[in-house]
Automatic annotation (TrEMBL), chain A:
Name this polypeptide is given: Vacuolar protein sorting-associated protein 21
Entry-linked InterPro entries: P-loop_NTPase (IPR027417), Small_GTP-bd (IPR005225), Small_GTPase (IPR001806)
Coiled-coil intervals, chain numbering: none
UniProt GO MF annotations: GTP binding; GTPase activity
Signal peptide (residue range): none
Region Disordered, annotated ranges: 204-235
Pfam family, one: Ras
Gene3D superfamilies: P-loop containing nucleotide triphosphate hydrolases
Record keywords: Nucleotide-binding
UniProtKB/TrEMBL annotation, chain B:
Molecular function GO terms recorded: GTPase activator activity; small GTPase binding
Phylogenetic lineage: Eukaryota, Fungi, Dikarya, Ascomycota, Saccharomycotina
Biased segments, Low complexity type: 845-854
InterPro entries to which the protein is assigned, alphabetical: EF-hand-dom_pair, GRAM, PH-like_dom_sf, Rab-GAP-TBC_dom, Rab-GAP_TBC_sf, Rab_GAP_TBC_domain
A GO cellular-component term linked to this record: site of polarized growth
Entry similarity comment: Belongs to the OCA5 family.
Protein name: Oxidant-induced cell-cycle arrest protein 5
Region (Disordered): 832-868
Keywords attached to this entry: GTPase activation
Domain Rab-GAP TBC: residue ranges: 240-428
Length: 235, 929
């Protein structure tokens, strides 16, 4: 598995450092999950290899890009990081439309966030692109790391509230990739994106050739009845 | 679990929320609009209005020399319960005020040069306001007397004034500088900036100078509740407010200052009364406390975090429909830098209720609507840029939504965001649009070069970080060179886009409101249905119908009740059930006896929170149990309705109650309005028999269904009535026969073997007895009508998926059913054919037992039915063979195959009798389709 992270490029779109004829594939990826599970932190780690202890909540959505090379192919992730609070859910369709990949994040110390993750899986299966690649991610692994390495006090209640098996079972039932990660300690973060890059169906339409822009009309804000159209994105 | 709490909340509120939100901005009454326009609290009504001339003087004014011309303004005068309002003809530009009447010290009549009547009003702030009314004499007198009654009436408000002015920095400023004699003991409570420093460089911002200018202004034009607005007032705000006064001017501009004085103490009470209470909103707030302006020092301290927690929590109690929305944390954190907790709390109220309604609500309706409006405005004002955005499929809302929702506080460096906020509080929500348009306009050239969201976003981001830099760094004109990006932004926003006013925004809102509303309600519906617990017996389509029915009945009942909530009360529940259940007959919800009524029992049982109301989820879970398809579960569900102690035992009273309720439920059948399966089969048999007899007589192979067959309807009806009456009495009898005497098992275990004794004991009304679940089921199963009631009759008479618009009349329906049954030629024809076949088979194979029929042949019959036409049947030799072959298999009919029950029966001496019973029934059901 050759994975090599390129320099952070949340802004640049023209890639002038690489001259070799490696095809670049653009992948639209959306992050979903309950508030404060660490979606933005996950992205920040992947894009800038950084972590902030008190990250402000995402209002609406944020957009970042990052390139990485997977199996001799450059994948440019166009990442839509969404707000986690329940009431922002009505905005989500705006961001996951046409997405080829999704990361559904929960916090392994918060059982409610796992239930929320189930809902997102359902929602995506019902509403999103039919062949969307979904990864289920249980974040904040660092919080339980110590207790799992045998250092845990028997009497103390475990911080972990969602077991690895529960996560894995959901992933297997629904055909999702599954990881437990920590944005804080950089545990398994790149792995998530690499696995998505490997799993994603690669057909011609994904290749970033010319920017064909408009994909059959703009979507109204919040037009939930919208059925995702072609799966290609612009670069 | 909190999450479920949230779902419940959602169910309670979302739909209503959408309705409420929809009203906002569109459904305001005239009075509300008036209050909104003058920033006074809702509920004020116009007592008097007139044209007039106003002259204002201040006792503190040092410039009262002989040549000083007292400014004079002509305009409109309004009197409400708590306010005297004046606005000059020049669109409030020259002179306007909202005088809070409690600040009036004295009113005297003076001679007027301009009108009929002149009143000199002297305030505690030592302003002399002379009103010259331009009205007919009688009206002027009416005004004078209204004013004096109003003043007297609100004299008690004076007590509020004293503690209140202690909280105003303007008052402190004047007292400290010996202008007033007010004793202000402490520095008024203010923002966190007083302790943790205000953002920005005070010197650079010329904070002292600005404060001095306001000081002068207060002397001359009054302050807080009695401030006169002149052109200088607007200017002073536009240049940026001084740190220490910012909070007070914000609350004055927004009108939240009036909420604060009118509701003194409410903030603290809210917190105290809800101390230690938990809610989903609080959980959400907790998640974000450390994530609110973390770069500002106060929010790395417990003091700052505590304040933020208290204001957000208090608001979530004050307005549970909104609760907490992300972005509110940032807005409140920003307010708290300049405002006391109480000031911030009331300003937050003003924001959510009036200034940006629906921004933070559960559906975020206002946010979505304003985004749409913004897009329209971009399209109208910058068509080239808009085309570019469309062509490249750029999601404008990704950049713009946070601007609006967090009032630019999460997008721009704080110092600049606060400048925008100054103007926002002054001139209202149009500010957000004007600034947003200006941002796009000023970056237009750059933005036109982008083709993707990423670059688009980063251009704007970069721009925000260069607001302090020169807008024209290479210009030779030093004036241009010294203009910062931010100054240019303000000029563009408020000069170039000054035509973007409330009226234009409202027009756009009206255009888009319905489609946003539609989208939200369908989203809410989808989510709410998806979030329901798993329901095995109700399909998704049915849930959709139930959802509409639930909300339509809730709405109707609330209109009559006059209060809004999307909970279903008992009355609405009765209506709901009588709409979809054949077995529900009218009962008066006000009837006292209803407390023991079956429907009341259902209602209470389905209401796990005991809030005397059902959520949509409660209702569907209950209905799902009611239409349970599994017989054993269905009986158990029913048992549970009466198991009030949750110990699996029904006492004597409960047994009597059950039997009464069974009478109630079965009354349509007991009274012959509806026919159950047993009767239907009997009817079919009767008809088929008649035709069969005809056939035999005529010896025809082919037959035609007669147009009319005489069935003894009366007899069949009577049979059914008898059957149900019998069932009821048998139920009662058997229940007590098999009821288990309390304590018996432990005390005299040996004797318990003797059934006779125990039964006798049970029949003795003095012996406490109970019915347990297996016994209850056994008693039900022992009666064919009641068994059928739980296996199908009740379910079939509960029409969950009945379309909402379908009106139906149960009695009419029943008649039709009887006629329909007779007219159902196919069924009857099948019956007849089966008889003929059976006769044929008896002739060929006398020994075969044809009372039991295979499920396979059943399926094939159904297929046949589909092929048949209008009852003209030719008997095919091949069919005959098929049926013969399958009959020989003597499979057990799946409907009556209930091994689990059989086991239970064996425990009782009636078991044998029962199985005979069942065989009889199989014979009966033989012809069932
Ligand atoms: N211990 C630990 N904390 C984390 C981790 N990831 C994120 N956090 C913290 O969790 C909080 C929320 O992180 P965010 O990345 O803002 O969460 P989010 O899912 O983007 O939240 P919203 O934008 O509100 O939906 C922050 O205080 C982070 O510092 C992690 O892996 N371990
Ligand atoms: Mg985030």
């Amino acid at each position: 598995m050759s994975s090599q992270q390129q320099q952070s490029s949340s802004t640049s779109t023209n890639n002038n450092s690489l001259q070799q004829p490696i095809p670049t594939i653009s992948v639209k990826l959306v992050l979903l999950g309950e508030a404060a599970v660490g979606k933005s932190s996950l992205v920040l780690r992947f894009v800038s290899n950084d972590f902030q202890e008190n990250k402000e909540p995402t209002i609406g959505a944020a957009f970042l890009t990052q390139k990485c090379t997977i199996n001799n192919q450059i994948i440019k992730y166009e990442i839509w990081d969404t707000a986690g609070q329940e009431r922002f859910a009505s905005l989500a369709p705006m961001y996951y439309r046409n997405a080829q990949a999704a990361i559904i994040v929960y916090d392994i110390t918060k059982p409610a966030s796992f239930i929320k993750a189930r809902h997102w899986v359902k929602e995506l299966h019902e509403q999103a692109n039919k062949n969307i690649t979904i990864a289920l991610v249980g974040n904040k692994y660092d919080l339980v790391e110590d207790e799992e390495e045998g250092g845990a006090n028997e009497n103390e209640e475990s911080l972990r509230k969602v077991s690895y098996e529960e996560g894995l079972n959901l992933a297997n039932e629904e055909g999702l990739l599954f990881f437990e990660t920590s944005a804080k300690t950089n545990h398994n973060i790149t792995e998530v994106f690499v696995a998505i890059g490997e799993k994603i169906p690669k057909d011609k339409s994904n290749e970033s050739n010319i920017n064909n822009g408009n994909e059959g009309g703009r979507i109204d804000l919040l037009n939930n009845e919208h059925i995702p159209q072609k799966s290609n994105t612009c670069c | 679990m909190a999450f479920f709490e949230n779902l419940k909340d959602k169910a309670l509120n979302t739909f209503q929320q959408v309705l409420l939100d929809k009203k906002d901005g569109s459904g305001l009454t005239k009075e509300q609009l008036f209050c909104q326009q003058y920033h006074i609290p809702d509920g004020e009504t116009l007592i008097y209005r007139s044209n007039g001339v106003v002259v204002v003087k201040s006792e503190y004014n040092e410039t009262t020399q002989a040549d000083y011309q007292v400014p004079l303004s002509q305009g409109k005068i309004y009197l409400t319960q708590h306010f005297l309002i004046f606005e000059d003809e020049n669109d409030k530009k020259n002179c306007s005020f909202n005088l809070y009447l409690s600040t009036v010290k004295k009113v005297e009549r003076v001679s007027s040069d301009y009108g009929e009547l002149a009143l000199n009003i002297i305030t505690y702030s030592k302003l002399h306001i002379t009103l010259h009314l331009d009205d007919i004499r009688s009206e002027c007198e009416r005004f004078a007397s209204s004013l004096s009654t109003t003043l007297k009436k609100y004299l008690k408000n004076l007590n509020k004034l004293q503690p209140f002015i202690q909280t105003c920095y303007s008052e402190y400023l004047l007292s400290k500088n010996k202008i007033t004699n007010e004793k202000i003991d402490h520095v008024p409570p203010g923002g966190l900036g007083l302790i943790f420093k205000f953002p920005g460089n005070a010197k650079e911002l010329r904070d002292k100078t600005k404060l001095k200018m306001w000081f002068d202004y207060f002397k001359e034009h009054g302050r807080h509740l009695s401030l006169i607005k002149t052109p200088l007032y607007y200017k002073l705000i536009r240049v940026g407010l001084p740190n220490r006064l910012r909070g007070e001017i914000w609350e004055l501009c927004s009108g939240s200052i009036y909420l604060r004085i009118d509701h003194q103490g409410e903030y603290i009470n809210l917190l105290n009364n809800n101390k230690d209470k938990k809610s989903f909103a609080i959980e959400e707030i907790e998640k974000d406390l450390n994530r609110s302006l973390p770069e500002y020092a106060a929010y790395q301290s417990t003091e700052g975090i505590e304040k933020l927690r208290r204001v957000l929590t208090a608001y979530s109690w004050k307005n549970p429909d909104v609760g907490y929305c992300q972005a509110m944390n940032i807005v409140v954190a920003a307010l708290l830098i300049y405002m006391s907790e109480e000031q911030a709390f009331w300003t937050l109220n003003m924001l959510c209720d009036r200034i940006v309604p629906g921004y933070y609500s559960k559906t975020m309706y206002g946010t979505l609507l304003d985004q749409r409006v913004f897009e329209s405005l971009v399209q109208n004002t910058m068509p080239i840029l808009w085309d570019h955005i469309i062509k490249n499929d750029i999601q404008l809302s990704v950049v713009s939504l946070p601007w609006f929702l967090s009032l630019y506080l999460s997008s721009m460096p704080l110092v600049y965001a606060f400048r925008i906020l100054d103007i926002f509080f002054l001139q209202g929500p149009k500010t957000l649009f004007q600034v947003a348009l200006a941002i796009l306009k000023l970056n237009g050239d750059e933005l036109l070069k982008t083709e993707d969201d990423g670059t688009f976003i980063s251009i704007i981001k970069t721009y925000f970080h260069t607001l302090d830099q020169s807008a024209h760094p290479s210009s030779s004109n030093s004036k241009y060179r010294n203009t910062t990006n931010f100054q240019e932004l303000l000029v563009t926003a408020f000069k170039e886009f000054s035509n973007i006013d409330e009226e234009m925004i409202n027009q756009h809102k009206n255009k888009h409101r319905d489609s946003i509303f539609q989208n939200i309600s369908s989203f809410v519906k989808r989510t709410e249905i998806r979030n329901l617990p798993r329901l095995n017996n109700i399909s998704n389509e049915t849930l959709n119908i139930l959802y509409d029915r639930f909300y339509s009945s809730v709405e109707i009942s609330n209109i009559t009740k006059g209060s809004g909530s999307s909970l279903m009360d008992y009355k609405a529940f009765l209506k709901f059930m009588s709409d979809i259940c054949d077995w529900v007959q009218f009962i008066d919800p006000k009837d006292e006896k209803n407390d023991t009524h079956f429907l009341k029992r259902l209602f209470n049982h389905w209401d796990p929170e005991k809030q005397n109301a059902l959520t949509f989820s409660d209702l569907t879970v209950g209905l799902n149990n009611l239409v349970e398809t599994d017989l054993m579960t269905s009986m158990s569900n029913f048992f549970e309705l009466y198991d009030d102690k949750h110990n699996g035992k029904l006492d004597r009273d409960s047994i009597i109650q059950i039997s009464e309720d069974l009478l109630y439920i079965t009354s349509p059948w007991k009274e012959g309005y509806l026919f159950d399966e047993i009767t239907k089969v009997a009817v079919e048999n009767e008809v088929a028999n008649e035709i069969y007899q005809e056939q035999i007589k005529n010896g025809n192979e082919k037959f035609e269904l007669p147009k009319h067959v005489d069935v003894n309807r009366e007899k069949l009806e009577q049979q059914q009535v008898q059957r149900y009456l019998q069932a009821a009495s048998t139920f009662m009898q058997r229940s007590f026969e098999y009821a288990i005497p309390e304590k018996e098992e432990v005390l005299i275990e040996d004797l318990a073997i003797d059934n006779k004794i125990s039964h006798n004991a049970a029949l003795n009304p003095n012996t406490p007895v109970y019915l347990d679940r297996p016994t209850f089921r056994m008693v039900i199963l022992a009666d064919e009508s009641y068994e059928l009631l739980f296996s199908s009759t009740l379910r079939n008479a509960t029409h969950l998926s009945k379309p909402l618009d379908q009106k139906f009349n149960p009695i009419g329906n029943i008649k039709n059913m009887f006629d329909g049954l007779l007219a159902d030629g196919k069924k009857v024809a099948n019956q007849v054919r089966r008889r003929m076949d059976s006769r044929a088979s008896q002739m060929t194979n006398n020994s075969s037992n044809n009372s039991i029929k295979s499920s396979k042949s059943k399926i094939e019959e159904e297929d046949d039915e589909k092929d048949d036409d209008f009852g003209i049947i030719s008997i095919d030799e091949k069919d005959k063979d098929l049926i013969l072959a399958t009959e020989a298999q003597t499979l057990v009919d799946p409907i009556t195959n209930k091994p689990a029950n059989q086991n239970e029966f064996k425990r009782f001496h009636k078991a044998e009798e029962n199985s005979i019973h069942k065989h009889n029934k199989e014979n009966l059901i033989e012809f069932e389709t």
